[in-house]
């Protein structure tokens, strides 16, 4: 180079980035295995394992197969799994199967708790896997989801899961007032230690598409949407209002969903309320990343870890992610 530099920066941000040790010293956020929650899809029957075509690498498993996944979580130190029933045979208009004590989910809870005493077990509370129409609640003649009647069923479902031993229940239905109603019912039934993680700010999002294929509700839902109860992606003040209500009604933890497109909402919620706050990196986000990874367009390991670190930076205390096992392995390799 035959020209001398003429400008001297007054601040050199690159000094700290020069070496790995100083980069480590100034690292503001960390992603650990303890931040990860694994959602799993469970099937009736035994010895069944099925791929989900829009979620490469994700499997729907009968309970006996799921135990291997639980074992892997325990080995890796993943603290919590979240159970979603898939392809239930007993769907109905009033979702009676949602509170059948011998149903798939309560059975899974009991068996996992008996075999894996150190693994946290969380369940989804909503009616969409159980209704013939694929909506999260009980509908009237026009197909409108009726709020207060739905809550009665959600209470039964919550008690059924708590009775079976769920550590955490997670209402994902977005009915008004359900957190308070469920909390009160749990208290009355002596389940005062059953934790509630509320899907407080759950948006009416296209990113749930692959999930609906995975649980087998897509066909039932058809062209219908969930806009009369899930939130408008245009809003974020409304998310704060939702979270405020859920905290007041007794939620122990709040969740924002989807994740990556809603990092701004996570940050606002964390700054405003400073309560345990979680993000759900949903099925469509997984599908997007996997599609690019499989095409060789994105580096697999780095895109998984960077996408998850973004949640920590945004203020999340933990992340529900279909990458939990892969991410845990990567984190362990780095350590
Ligand atoms: C159902 C429920 C959904 C998800 C979690 N619980 C789908 C929906 O609301 O239609 C989505 C999860 C994902 O996309 O990974 N109440």
Automatic annotation (TrEMBL):
List the catalytic activities from the record.
2 5-aminolevulinate = porphobilinogen + 2 H2O + H(+)
Q: Which UniProt keywords apply?
A: Heme biosynthesis, Lyase, Porphyrin biosynthesis
Recorded E.C. number(s)?
A: 4.2.1.24
The protein's annotated pathway: Porphyrin-containing compound metabolism; protoporphyrin-IX biosynthesis; coproporphyrinogen-III from 5-aminolevulinate: step 1/4
Q: Does the keyword Transmembrane apply?
A: no
**Pfam families with a match to the protein in the record:** ALAD
Q: Where are the transmembrane segments?
A: none
Q: Which terms in the Gene Ontology molecular function aspect does this entry carry?
A: porphobilinogen synthase activity
Determine if Lyase is one of this entry's keywords: yes
Q: Which domain of life is it from?
A: Bacteria
Give the multimer and partner information: Homooctamer.
**UniProt family annotation:** Belongs to the ALAD family.
Q: What is this protein called?
A: Delta-aminolevulinic acid dehydratase
Tell me which species this is from.
Answer: Vitreoscilla massiliensis
């Amino acid at each position: 180079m035959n020209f001398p530099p003429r400008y001297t920066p007054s601040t050199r941000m690159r000094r700290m980035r020069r070496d790995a040790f100083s980069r480590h010293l100034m690292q503001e956020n960390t992603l650990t295995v303890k931040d990860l929650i694994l959602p799993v899809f469970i099937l009736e029957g035994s010895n069944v394992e099925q791929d989900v075509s829009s979620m490469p690498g994700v499997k729907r498993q009968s309970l006996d197969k799921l135990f291997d996944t639980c074992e892997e979580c325990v080995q890796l130190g993943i603290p919590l799994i979240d159970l979603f029933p898939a392809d239930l045979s007993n769907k109905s208009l009033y979702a009676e199967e949602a509170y059948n004590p011998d149903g798939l989910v309560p059975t899974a809870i009991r068996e996992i708790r008996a075999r894996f005493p150190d693994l946290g077990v969380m369940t989804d509370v909503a009616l969409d896997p159980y209704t013939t129409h694929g909506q999260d609640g009980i509908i009237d003649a026009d197909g409108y989801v009726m709020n207060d009647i739905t809550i009665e069923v959600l209470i039964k479902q919550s008690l059924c899961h708590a009775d079976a031993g769920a550590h955490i229940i997670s209402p994902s239905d977005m009915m008004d007032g359900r957190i308070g109603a469920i909390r009160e019912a749990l208290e009355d039934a002596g389940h005062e230690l059953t934790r509630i993680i509320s899907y407080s700010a759950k948006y009416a999002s296209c990113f749930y598409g692959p999930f609906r294929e995975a649980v087998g509700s897509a066909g039932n839902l058809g062209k219908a949407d969930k806009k009369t109860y899930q939130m408008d992606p245009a809003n974020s003040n409304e998310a704060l209002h939702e979270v405020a209500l859920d905290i007041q009604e007794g939620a122990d933890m709040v969740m924002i969903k989807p994740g990556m497109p809603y990092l701004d909402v996570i940050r606002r919620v964390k700054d405003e309320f400073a309560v345990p706050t979680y993000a759900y990196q949903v099925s469509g986000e997984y599908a997007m990343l996997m599609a690019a990874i499989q095409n060789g367009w994105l580096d697999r390991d780095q895109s998984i870890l960077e996408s998850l670190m973004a949640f920590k930076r945004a203020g999340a205390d933990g992340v529900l992610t279909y990458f939990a096992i892969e991410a845990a392995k990567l984190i362990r390799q780095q350590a």
